[in-house]
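Hello forum,

I keep getting stuck at the same step: I have a sequence, I want structure tokens, and every attempt I make locally crashes halfway through. Rather than fight my setup again tonight, could one of you with a working pipeline run this one for me? It's a single chain of 313 residues.
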Amino acid sequence: MQAMDGVLVINKPPDVTSHDVVAEVRRILRVRRIGHTGTLDPFATGVLVLLIGRATRLAQFLSGVEKEYEAVIRLGYSTDTGDFTGQRLAGGPSSSGPWSAEQIEAALAQLRGDIEQVPPMYSAKKQGGRKLYELARAGEEVERQPVPVCIYKFEAIKPTGELLKDNLDGTYDFEVRVECSSGTYVRTLAEDFGKQLQVGAHLAELRRTRVGDLRVDHAQTLDQVKVSFAEESLGTVLHKPDEVLARLPAIDLSDEDLRKAEHGMDLRIDEAKWTDGERVRMRDAAGNLIAVATFNAAERSLHPAVVLAAEHS
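Reply #2:
Ran it on my machine without issues. Output:
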């Protein structure tokens, strides 16, 4: 069977883990080397980026890109997990809404730009060698240090024309679009938004619509992957490694330089147009990604940091 190397964008369904999706795609494609660039919570849906074959070597270049989400924030009470799967917490702020458009915009504005977030206890972040959610399930709560994140966009979505949907049970649903740096917890953003309005809040729905340049429009369901594999048309939905790193500058190699790059040898560059430490795609004559290099300004050279070319026998 011909080796498969590329990036597959999955539209993750609800109520399955990201690990389950990876296992299912591994079973469908009958390949062992599959990785991902960042998990989604089981209840969340949308873009899950899977790296197939030698493309698994590109994880470091795709894990830190910005993300985009569409979410429903439920205003009225908080939960112990920050989302609807958790237990409702008693007490908390007494504001009951509804809130004016001006109040909502002021709350959104406070959470845009560079902010700090305290990682939720129900997260996979490790502390003291243990994942926080493992401690939380054991009834433990530990102090967490805030981490810097950037919220590029935090705005209301009004699909029905309403700013707030009254659920007639003392809660209101508020739909938002979020564009943020990698490492942002949208659950924490929802809770912090509620605090700005002096009301308990949690995440009722979450859908990831973009990871870097890979959008949910590019995504395949698991059933579609099965069909594509059965019809031997997987190449039509498998993104080439060079395509998904299109943000990086590129250099097309001569045959001689190609052989050097495939063996991880540095290339001397006479007329460089990159900054020191910048990542550069190295491609063959057909436009296939051979390696991702790091530019050394002092030595005016490119060092192939990650080589994708097939292993030589």
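The domain at 6-65+213-240 is CATH 3.30.2350.10 (Pseudouridine synthase). If your local run keeps crashing, start a new thread with the error log.
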